[in-house]
Amino acid sequence: MLDIFFPGFAEQAVRLEGDWLGAGDYYIPLDDGTIKDRWGVVHRIGTDGKFVQWITGPLVNAKDPDEYEFPKSEWLIKDPELPSRIKYLQQKGVFVKTLITNP
Predict the structure, then answer these.
(1) What whole-number distance in Å separates Cα of residue 79 and Cα of residue 38?
(2) Which residues of 41-78 are buried (b: 16+ CB within 10 A; e: fewer)?
(3) Residues 75, 5: contact at Cβ < 8 Å?
(4) What does the H/E/C string look like for the chain?
(5) What is the pTM assigned to this prediction?
(6) 35 CB neighbour count, 10 Å cutoff
(7) pLDDT tens-digit series, residues 56-102
(8) N or C: which end of the chain has fewer CB within 10 A?
């Protein structure tokens, strides 16, 4: 299965666990309960872990969408953990859309 590599993200990101829908994935911790995802979107996790608030994103102050470096095709990578992350989210009741192609 494929995922997207974001330059500079893996060096700062840590895997977050817990009982919330984003658990098991990697984020950049900013402070207690505030995180940044691989797309550059900042979220705050509620104290009970059941609410995730959108704080800001990389295009908030952009005058042009081209100011954001959108993923390129060469950033696609094979991610051996992706199937288990998808299964985890599905078990939590989250709708997950996947594209399956035959080789």
Answers:
(1) 14
(2) bbbbbeeeeeeeeeeebbeeeeeeeeeeeeeeeeeeee
(3) yes
(4) CEEECCCCCCCCCEECCCCCCCCCCEEEEEECCEEECCCCCEEEECCCCCCEEEEECCCCCCCCHHHCCCCCHHHEEECCCHHHHHHHHHHCCCCCCCCCCCC
(5) 0.69
(6) 22
(7) 998 999 899 888 888 888 887 777 877 887 788 788 787 777 665 54
(8) C
